[in-house]
Amino acid sequence: MAEAIAFDLAVELITKLSSFTLSQIGLWWNVKDDLDDLKSTVSTIKAVLLDAEERSVTSHHVKDWLEKLKDVLYDADDLLDDFSTEAFRKDLLGGNKLTKEVRLFFSSSNQFAYSLKMGRQIKAIKARLTLIGSEAKMFNLVERDRPMETSFMTKKRHQTHSFKDNIIGRDDDKAALLKLMLEFESEENVYIIPIVGLGGLGKTALAQFVYNDEMVKNHFELMMFVCVSDVFDVKIIVENIIKSATGEAPNQKLEMDQLQSQLRGKIGGKKYLLVLDDIWNEEWEEWVSLKELLVGGAKGSRIIVTTRSLRVAKITSKCQPYVLKGLSDDDAWSLFKEIAFEQRSINPTFVKIGKQILERCGGVPWLLGP
Question: Where are the beta strands (DSSP E) in the chain?
Answer without folding.
Answer: 190-196, 222-229, 272-279, 301-307, 322-323
